[in-house]
Specification:
heterodimer, A: mainly alpha
């Protein structure tokens, strides 16, 4: 028989949406600055250089 | 709540991205195009049997509207991305009873510039086209970890208690002790003056962008707050 003791399980209902919004930002930056697919890279080229993303 | 965060970041990202793109078109892109002349061999610095001088003359933007529209578009995407991260941090700060007014947003923007532009640029300076560099993946990893380490360090210095600010200082320094990936030879084809000026102007444009982003994210985040 297992006994599970749940203590301190107050989940802050705001953390999940905050983390989601933060990750949405990260995803946009993966597209505009990181992804190396040729089409994406060429289109974003000047902006990547100007914003000092490590480019090609 | 999610909608409030998304709309604030989007508004701030679009306004900032537009202004940042204008700054880039005036200050940064002409030098980038000048660098491409050396990358393509249309201009050669120190030719073997010629003059040691090169003309210091940036081409104008030309009529390549498709290319420049893409630069504008990706500025909107980039600044909206950073804006989403900033408003998420504001919202997290609020759960810890830390408020962010538009003026304080400027400080957050400055911290963003420090973490995302200046600290990585110490190891990986903004690159003029034609700069030969090591493989992209190790640089991307160092770049990402440096931003993470610097941002965490700044957060600990600003909000940490006890000895945590000292740990924060350590996090600022560690990426530079480890060091960014570098080639063991110099390959530059462009005049060093051009490359240096490209670096300072692109950092300057990014500084203006981050200050504006900090201000506008905090402005819209307060303005559109359904709880106020």
């Amino acid at each position: 028989m297992t006994t599970t003791t749940l203590t301190n399980t107050r989940t802050d209902s705001k953390i999940l949406p905050i983390a989601t919004v933060f990750l949405a930002g990260v995803m946009l930056l993966l597209v505009s600055g990181i992804a190396q697919a040729t089409v994406l890279h060429d289109a974003a080229h000047d902006q990547r250089h100007a914003m000092a993303f490590p480019c090609h | 709540m999610t909608k409030h965060l998304l709309t604030s970041a989007l508004f701030a990202g679009v306004v900032t991205g537009l202004i940042a793109a204008l700054l880039q078109f005036h200050f940064v892109i002409p030098l980038l195009l000048e660098g491409e002349l050396y990358e393509a061999g249309a201009r050669i610095h120190f030719p073997i049997n010629g003059s040691p001088q090169s003309p210091a003359e940036a081409p104008d933007l030309g009529a390549d509207w498709g290319r420049h529209m893409m630069t504008l578009t990706f500025n909107l995407v980039t600044y909206t991305g950073y804006g989403l991260m900033l408003v998420a941090l504001y919202a997290f700060a609020k759960t810890r009873a830390i408020s962010v007014t538009p003026r304080q947003g400027i400080i957050w923007g400055l911290a963003g510039f420090f973490a995302v532009q200046l600290a990585p640029a110490l190891g990986l300076p903004p690159e003029l086209p034609g700069t030969l560099t090591p493989e992209v993946l190790p640089r991307q990893i160092w770049w990402s970890l440096t931003i993470l380490s610097t941002a965490t360090g700044l957060g600990l210095i600003a909000f940490g208690r006890g000895f945590l600010p000292l740990l924060g200082i350590g996090l600022l320094v560690v990426p530079h002790i480890i060091g960014a990936p570098h080639l063991n030879t110099y390959w530059g084809v462009a005049p060093p003056e051009l490359s240096a000026h490209f670096v300072t102007l692109s950092l300057g444009a990014a500084l203006a962008g981050w200050v504006l982003l900090g201000f506008f994210t905090a402005y819209f985040w307060n303005r559109l707050d359904p709880e106020q």
